[in-house]
Amino acid sequence: MPTLNLFTNVPVDAVVASDILRDATKAVAKIIGKPESYVMILLNGQVPIAFGGTEEPAAYGELISIGGLGPSVNGNLSSTIAEILETKLSIDSSRFYIKFYDVQVFFCLVL
Predict the structure, then answer these.
(1) What is the rounded CA–CA span in Å between residue 61 and residue 66?
(2) Closest of 47, 61, 46, 44 to residue 95, by C-alpha
(3) Any residues with CB less than 8 A from the CB of 6 and at least 6 apart, and which?
(4) Cα separation of 59 and 43, whole Å?
(5) What is the distance between the alpha carbons of residues 53 and 21, in angstroms, rounded to a whole number?
(6) Which of 94, 89, 88 is nearest to 51 (CA)?
(7) CATH number for the domain including 43?
(8) How is 13-73 classified by DSSP, letter by letter?
(9) How many distinct structural domains can be found in the chain?
(10) Which pLDDT score is estimated for 109?
(11) Range(s) of the domain holding residue 42
(12) Residue 108: how many other CB atoms lie within 10 Å
């Protein structure tokens, strides 16, 4: 299940949060190639963040997925999520980082 955790120092009202959750869900599902029903988005607003020594609007994200990630996918996801944050929260794309985790599936049999 792809999970995107987003943190921002910008206050996020309920209407904007709903728009971001919807848009990010669609983007992650489409770009990774997994059903929307598998995608989870968490949005945390008003988190104390300093970026480059200032507290101007900024954001940080972590995307965890079992497969589906790679250099071109990660670049596309990064720019798409940055665009959503810039449109909805006025966060400049140069003040947004995202970290990708491609998790491997391990099976364990316990007797």
Answers:
(1) 17
(2) 61
(3) 20, 24, 41, 42, 43, 44, 59, 60, 61, 81, 85
(4) 10
(5) 28
(6) 94
(7) 3.30.429.10
(8) -HHHHHHHHHHHHHHHHHHHT--GGG-EEEEE-S----BTTB-SS-EEEEEEESS---HHH
(9) 1
(10) 60
(11) 2-107
(12) 4
Spatial distance between the Cα atoms of 4 and 77, rounded to a whole number of angstroms: 11
What is the percentage of the chain residues whose pLDDT exceeds 90? 90
Looking at the chain, how many residues does it have? Answer: 111
Active site residues: 2
The count of other CB atoms within 10 Å of the CB of residue 94 is: 11
Q: Which pLDDT score is estimated for 1?
A: 86
What is the pTM (predicted TM-score) of this model? 0.91
Read off the DSSP letter of residue 103: P
Residue 53, phi-psi category: left (phi > 0), alpha (psi -120 to 50), beta (remainder):
left
pLDDT one digit per residue (tens) for the chain, 111 residues: 899 999 999 999 999 999 999 999 999 999 999 999 999 999 999 999 999 999 999 999 999 999 899 999 999 999 999 999 999 999 999 999 999 999 977 655 666
